[in-house]
Specification:
Length: about 325
């Protein structure tokens, strides 16, 4: 009899009337909000504008969810496409099953699209989001607790998780809470990235690379404790091999980036106000030029009109003077 343990929830779905509220979905949603909140604070500290992180997250999050689900379905295809299984279950994301590797890969594609539309360098945005993503994973792992899934080997430690469900081949008992281990590890990764970023002024994607590398280290040993079904290659679980490969890629990127592009980006988001002001000044200049031309034309026409009127008056005066002289000469003639 275990004196201390982590109890599992009696159910993972609660109903608000006819609306189902799933603990797994809530954990994912909370994680997204935490990532955007912290990412926005870090983006503002880097000189970016408020709202940019959320705007790009609108692209990154849906891509990430699709990528995470695709990775899970592809690597565990027998759960959905083997005999006796229903392939429609592959779309039931609320029942669990998101691969972080696919989520990060396809989420990065969505973020790249969002950054490109706003003229923002993706590495700078990823650096701002890195610790927030780690905290999002920490929140999301508690969704596995609601679903009573992805636990580790049997154990007698006081913090063992008590599994009570017997569906899908589960055996009730006390197991290592790998969801808790990974959640705590992700919190530590977030703290590490924040500290290293402040201490060494990481830029050009190096904070994100540090997050990836640190997460892979933890995922490697936590994966060894899990007892859920998984594909094995050369005696190791597939996710262990994935962690090794991704860790190497992250370290290589970190080293090459530090060598080729030291320091941190001075400008992370273009200042659109300057461009608008310049365009406005140009438009105003064009308007003044046009007005000047019209004014000059008006002045020229006025001068020409004044000159014509002066010439007309001079001509009339000359004719009147000639008539007066003719009359003066005619008068003596009549007298004589």
């Amino acid at each position: 009899m275990e004196i201390a343990f982590i109890p599992s929830p009696s159910r993972g779905v609660y109903h608000l009337g006819i609306i189902p509220l799933r603990g797994y979905a809530f954990c994912i949603i909370i994680g997204v909000f935490v990532a955007v909140w912290l990412g926005n604070k870090r983006w503002l500290a880097r000189g970016g504008r408020a709202g940019t992180v959320a705007d790009i997250a609108v692209w990154a999050v849906p891509f990430g969810l699709v990528g995470g689900r695709l990775y899970h379905v592809i690597t565990d295809y027998e759960l959905y496409f083997s005999e006796g299984r229903n392939w429609v279950d592959a779309f039931k994301i609320w029942e669990g099953g998101l691969g972080i590797w696919g989520a990060i890969a396809l989420g990065a594609l969505g973020a790249w699209i969002g950054c490109r539309r706003r003229g923002i360098p993706l590495p700078a945005w990823a650096d701002a989001l890195a610790p927030g993503i780690a905290l999002a994973q920490a929140c999301g792992r508690w969704g596995n607790w609601f679903n009573q899934e992805l636990y580790g080997r049997e154990t007698t430690v006081p913090w063992a998780v008590h599994i009570t469900s017997s569906t899908d081949g589960r055996v009730p008992g006390y197991y290592h809470p790998t969801f808790l281990y990974e959640s705590l590890w992700c919190v530590g990764v977030a703290v590490l990235v924040i500290w290293a970023d402040r201490r060494f002024k990481l830029g050009h994607g190096r904070a994100f690379a540090l997050y990836v590398a640190a997460y892979c280290v933890g995922r490697f040993w936590i994966e060894y404790l899990r007892v859920d079904e998984a594909h094995h290659i050369l005696g190791m679980r597939l996710n262990n091999w994935t962690a090794i490969v991704v860790f190497i890629l992250a370290v290589v990127y970190f080293v090459l980036s530090a060598r080729n592009r030291p320091g941190r980006e001075e400008v992370v988001e273009p200042d659109l106000s300057d461009g608008s002001a310049a365009d406005g000044a140009e438009d105003e200049g064009d308007g003044d030029g046009e007005s000047g031309d019209v004014k000059a034309g008006t002045d020229t026409d006025g001068a020409a009109k004044t000159e014509d009127d002066g010439a007309g008056e001079s001509k009339a005066d000359s004719e009147a003077e000639e008539d007066s002289k003719s009359e003066a000469q005619a008068e003596p003639t009549k007298k004589s």
